[in-house]
Amino acid sequence: MALPSDGITTRGYQQEMLEESLRRNIITALDTGSGKTHIAVLRIKTEVERQTVKVSWFVAPTVALCEQQRNVIQGAIPGPVGIISGSQEPDQWKNAALWQTALRNNRVLVTTPQVLLDALRHSYVSLGRDISLLIFDEAHHAVDNHPYNRIMKEFYFTLPPHLSSASSGYQRPSILGLTASPIYGGNVEKAFKIIEENLDSTICTPRRHKDELEKYVHRPVFRHALFNPPDVANPPFSTNLAALNAIVKTINIQNDPYVHSLRKQLSRVIPGTADYHRIDQKLSKVIQKEDSFTHKGLRDFERTAQAICQDLGSWAADWYVSEVIQHAKQAANPHNNIISTWKNQEKVYLLDIINRIEVLPVSYYAEDISEECSDKVQVLIHTLLGEKLDSESMNELYSGLVFVQRRDTVLALAELLRHHPFTKDTFKFGCLLGTSDSSYRHSFLDITRFLLKDSHQDTLDDFKIGEKTVIISTAVAEEGIDIQACGSVIRWDPPQNMASWAQSRGRARRKRSTYTVLFQKGGPEQKNISKWQDLERKMVALYNDPSRESVPEEAGIDGDDDDDDVLGFRVPSTGAHADNRPLYDTDPQEFPEGWHSFDNRSKPSAYPDSGPFGSTVTLPRSLPLPSREFATERIYRSRISAHRHAAFTAYKALYDAGLLNENLLPITSVTEPHLEEEVKEMLKDVEQRAGFANVSLQIDPWFVEDLKLVCWHTYELAIDSLPPLILFSVSRPIFLPNDEGPMLYRPGQATISTHLRYIESVGLSDARLEQARQYTKMLFWSFHDSRMSWDKDDFPYLVLPKEIDFNWRERRAWLSEMNAARGSTRADECFADAEKFGQAFGYPTDLTIIRNGLRFGKGYRFVGWRYDPLNEEEENTFRKYYSHLENLDIIYPLLEVRSLPPRSNFLVPVVTPDLEKKPQKNIFLIPRISSIVVLSHAESEYASLLPSILRSLACSITVSSLRDELLASTPLYDIPNSLLLTAMTAPVSGERTNYQRLETLGDTVLKFLVAIQLLAEYPLWHEGYLSRKKDHAVANVRLAKENISRNLYQWIIRGIFVLCTYLKSTTKMCGIDRMLGRKWKPNYIRPEITSTTVEAQAEPTEGNNNGKKKKKQQELSTKVLADVVESLIGAAYIHGGFELGYQCASFFDMGLRWQPLPIRIQALLARMEIEDEYPSQLAHVECILGCTFKRKSLLIEALTHASYEQNLYTPSYERMEFLGDSVLDMIVTDFLYHAPGKNYSPGHIHLRKSAVVNAHILAYICLSSSTTANATMPGIGSEGTITLLPETHIIHLWQCLLHSSPLILEDQRSTAVRYKHRRDDIHRALVGGSLFPWADLIRLQAPKFFSDMVESLIGAVFLDSSGDIDVARSVMTKLGILPILDRIVRDDVDVLHPVSRLSLWAQKHDKELEYRYEKEKGKVSCIVLVNEKEECRMTELYHGRASQEEVKFMAAEHAIKLFRLRDVDVNYTLLKKRRLTKKKKVINTTDSR
User: Fold this and answer.
1) Bridge pairing between strands 712-719 and 692-696
2) Fewer C-beta within 10 Å: the chain N or C terminus?
3) CA distance 655 to 657
4) What is the sign of the dihedral through the CA atoms of 212, 213, 217 and 223?
């Protein structure tokens, strides 16, 4: 059997293992490099082919292994292979919809074990229902509390036994384990028994093809090298290490800023409270253990440097100390942010200590390096050189791998070997270290991460291609990672256990390879090697023993577990369960209270460690629970047990409060249990449609359902100065405000006004109808004959002139006689031979339309008859025009004509500024081969303008239908037709107005209304839950669904009505097309069947041949469907304010429980607690806001940060921030929508709104808002006597935040300093600049709580005023938000983001834009290069990533001024479209010097 996808031939022993795996559960024990993964791939392929319902699941212990194995499987399996690991965002895999999608769309899933365990625990995945094959890579991990073992214990052994792999029933999956060393500890039989029981499998290896296996598994030659230990009497001496030792001895834990901080916190907390006890214990512990960041870090540094000195020698120790201190000084600089978790106080304290360490630079002279190396290093070098010599003697390139236990030793050893005279030009060294990019790392030696020059993958890639020949690695390269096979593996440190021995040895996989271990002379390690070799022989013998059978079915259920009872509860609907595993605090305290202040701290703790213990858990303030403290009694045998029980109680309370979903996870996509299935279906629907929905076609406003009941409505249609017409229509009556019809716009001409006045209804027998039908056909046929049938004249609208033009009636009678005489068809009655017509009527000058040829020739506007000879230029043009005629003689008179306007949709004005400047040249036609359209001037105007008028009337009829059929019984019926028409007109229609502006306004109104509904409906939900629920309620898919359920889409005006089909339904549907050029054609009461309309015929339902037809379907984007809902809400708000906006939003339901706004707001206010005492800063905040709160508790909530510890009953400001964000958006959007004289497009509304609601400008508002307090003090007056001296003190808004966090305090101070430096520049730009100061605002680097504070206060003001939006508007004016917006609008301030502007400019002019960074001497520069040429450069001090972004903004703004790009956003929408098709490269590069 072979894998067809990659051509790898399956070896006999692999086939043997596959067959064994198909027969029973096994753990395949094969050496590294023997192809265990290939066996797994074969097994998966077989499973995929025979199991169509369940998936195969591959688990590997690390993310790197998952990615590697997934790539291998993907290349061999003809189906999708998904990968999900904890390295992805948790929301991407802790989401029920994603798991369902993954199970449905993938045949194989590859994950880390913890991900699968969590999914099983939360019942997103069922082991018995969803998985048929479970493969464990590196299966020897399945012991103790490893996730491998937990999966089996908690979920596998509780299932019914496995019956058949093809079965889709509820049963145990098949198990396949892969390992190179199925052993741990020193007892082979016990290790085998435990692993086999835990995995319900049998360890086995090939027996029939054992000889073949030996051909592919090359055991390396084992060697050892002995080195002398350091001389105890004369140990290596490192100058830099000695300097470090001297300073470390002098430091005192009492001076540590962390101890100071804890003491300060303790002094501010009330004795006897839970917070006091907690801080007291923390302080005692840190003093006893001296494990503060600085003290522990320096001791670790000292120990590590000492170990390097002993192991590698003094040169390596000197280098290590020097490098670490150099990097530590950079990281400890308070202005730097190299390691974000280092606090500023720690940095200052650490910097003070390390600045006292006198460090000497290391010497790179060859003699110094050689002399200051340990004997162990010399032995390693000798070994490397010898191995290289051996490889080259066999014509093989040398590659080696050196395993080292400590990561710091890896770095120092690599640096030493790179410069040692014997190795620097002989080998190319690389390093592999275990990595962690966690943002929570907080250790001094984290800075050694920056000593690594190349990335993990780069090093492996270089090793594969020979750019690196020796890799020095920690244990990261031992297990599983696909590292290039090498000929030499050297253990700098002896293996720690049997698995390490076997796996590191397996990396030496070449045919002639060696495995060398360095031993200290006289050390005990050599005995371990002998023991492991003996264990390995026993292991191989045991799994080759043919008498071994599989373990009993139920083995593995019992086993060692915690000595504590396991609490748990299960959600019946999903099977998800929670237990008591999290860890929290203790009772009694570990130290006597005040131990940190005892004179004699050497005495032991007053409390024994034997228990019993209790625990108290206090949940964060952001959870609005009645109580956030959960305690257990002192009855548990260990602190951990007490913590677990307390945590379990708290978690159960969260579930009971509705703050966890049915999968016992924080609410994410499903915020209401009863809506879960609906949301799942909607998400499924979105996936299937990819943003589109199939709906029936738009209504036909001219449709007549029953022809027998038809009556015709008559109107007087007046078109400017033309004689009036009588209009007959079969549609519903049309009543226009003030009888005013559409305005018509012709290029280069004055605007044409129309009026339509209703007269009466008439019956089918009215004699005028037939006259009107023939007259209407004549008008339409004269212009649109190529798209009409002469015999088809059942139009739903007819026109008839009130006055008869007898002159043209006589001419048409003459033409009729001429056609009858020569036997022409009636279809030619509108077109007369120009030569004969001129001769018959004396070459009249009141002609209108001339065609070049008969009937289907191109039409021209008549200018006159040309009797005078053509000049030379005119004659040349004329002969060229008629070049197809031979021997052309010019006979006068000629027809002099001009081209007709290039458009026939006159509802939209088109600016043609150059039309009069460039007059059209006249064209000359030969009368005998030209035809005259026999219409008077007025009739030609009718024929030209009627399609546009009828289009406008059709739109009016459509919205009237909407009002009468859908909105009749709702308050929305009162919305004027003009607003409804705009709200229902899609941009694709090409109309003068469309819904885009209303949709933008309606979107904001909807979010505002939904925010209030949710805030009142869910009083316990924090901002995160509320935002997720709001996003779900107003999502395009949800709104589209509401649109479809109400058939609203039928009234969306998308184009002109041309393609029609006659349906047996209560509403006539028709296709649509835009009015482009002159391709209009009339509607018919009974539509003709053409090749176009055939497509609109109903088709039989699939699988049903009974001939029944279904409605024509059309694909509409969910965005269009959602936009119309939002535009209707916007129209309702424009007409009737929030009350009618609420009525419209509630009409569409959206899955919410709607209640009027006053009721919702009163419900919110009713829950407000009345406080007896208020913080003093409330009065200052009221002064800053310019309003006095009726309910002070609202203001307290708006000012309360989650860290605040003094008032446990007031929730933090997140909910007020959620409301304030919506209020802010509402006021700003309303302002921009109604900006006088602007009529901003949605894109421009968004640009300007973004400028005043972003976190940067709101932080600036917070920083700039202040008031003064009376600080009058006694002093010596002008007369030398004591008097009261007036003085004021500035109170800043940000100072009024209620919090208990030293970090926030530090952030406030540092941000205030940055604001002080930037405020003048920002102020000048905001009050008088032409560009919005994006870069200066970003350089404030203000934390989010500054902007949150402003939004929460706006929300609190709105709520306290009982929902008065004008009060909130006045506060925004007082804070300065609306004045900034007003100035942006009034002076047309350029608010386009500078980086976006520069990018758009580069795209428009087809230039390559690059931002290049250079870091040098503590500064960072950003260079703007255009087509690789430097255009400008800006430089700032480097303070981490944020300062790099700052300087980029500065450079972009400077480039804008340099290139004078003020108006680059004129065609902003056009440029955005261009970006979709052609995206110019924008490069960011960094050069560190």
Assistant:
1) unpaired
2) C
3) 5
4) negative
